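User: Quick one: structure for sequence A, then sequence B.

Assistant: Sequence A:
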Amino acid sequence: MFTKNLVALALCILPVFSAPSPLISVEKAEEPIPGKYIVVFKEGASRQANIESINAASITYEWDIINGFAGSLSLDEVEALKSNPDVVSIEEDGVVHTQAIVTQ
């Protein structure tokens, strides 16, 4: 009886541990540049191997300060990165203003 209950419990819990990790959401920019993204990888993850895995053709910037890159990505490439366990964040690249116009 105990064995049957243990097996039943294991069968109920197993799907929880084998469930895929949730997809990373893409952070939105206020003034996005269409098709341009900034991607940050976990510390220690191979930036080059991850870039090659999605066949990203148009990388604009790579940094040494953060483990990431900016570039033009297709929607398929973005979807592949969203489920990549090495990815920390994906953000739309966009226009940023350093000064705001104030009217009085």
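Sequence B:
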Amino acid sequence: MSTNDKVAAIITDRIITKLEAGVVPWRKPWKSTSPRNVSGRPYKGINRLLLGMTDYDSPFYATFKEVQERGWRVQKGQHAEIVVLYQPIRKTEHKPDDPKANADGDVTKSFWLVRYYKVFNVSQLEAGDKPIPERFLAPDKVADHEAIAFAEDIVTCYPDAPTIVQKGDSASYAPRTDKVTVPKMEKFDSPESFYATLFHELVHSSGAAKRLNRPGITAHNPFGSEGYAKEELVAEMGAAFLCAEAAIEPLYENTTAYIQSWLKALKNDKNLVLVAASQAQKAIDHILDETEDKKEEDAA
């Protein structure tokens, strides 16, 4: 088994454990502040999901090296969480007969190497040579009215957004017409649930050919197919990440059938959650009109 496959198996097994306990981890990958390192940089993609599954009060995490550098200590008996780091690798081989060889007969291939390392939540630490600043110990609180305003800002700031129509009793995205349809807000149990549903459909729309050109949207993926399941997971995760950005917490009903369907999918494909998290991150970066400084997912 390759390093990448081992990491994928470790992460998927953790998520399967949560599902078997009746918890759908991507439906609430936040507290009131998204997880971030002690330098203030938010974790993204699969790392946002992994750290969102924890129960710590603080959103801040640090590597053991960072703990030592800041003069803190890990409390006795504490266990670290894992996060993933993608490293770009280039490998050159001498293959003069290969059609892709350069003038020197060399062929260069690029791929990603997936590694994981360990971090501690600030709640697991104690003062050593230096005290832990109060700002690391508890998440910032966001007022309900501010959260709804943040959610609306996300919708209005989508740079090349599809047409959004509020009508009917179901939610959908139509690639052919580039139109998102959702019921009116008053039909939902709460404004938070309305925005969570709208975010789900907006993530689908990010996959249109003129945007991210994601196969889950551009290819034919009938209901129940593998491609359909993958795209739904992308939309689920992306919507959860956008809810975290807006600091809203919609209520979900985790039915047995729903959980069993994802257990089956994840057990059949150990790379599913890693790929979906990566695509979900790209989707919300597009919706939020954010560009990455570098292509690898930098968890540190």
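Residues 3-287 form one domain. Confidence is low (pLDDT under 50) at residues 293-300.

User: Thanks, that's what I needed.
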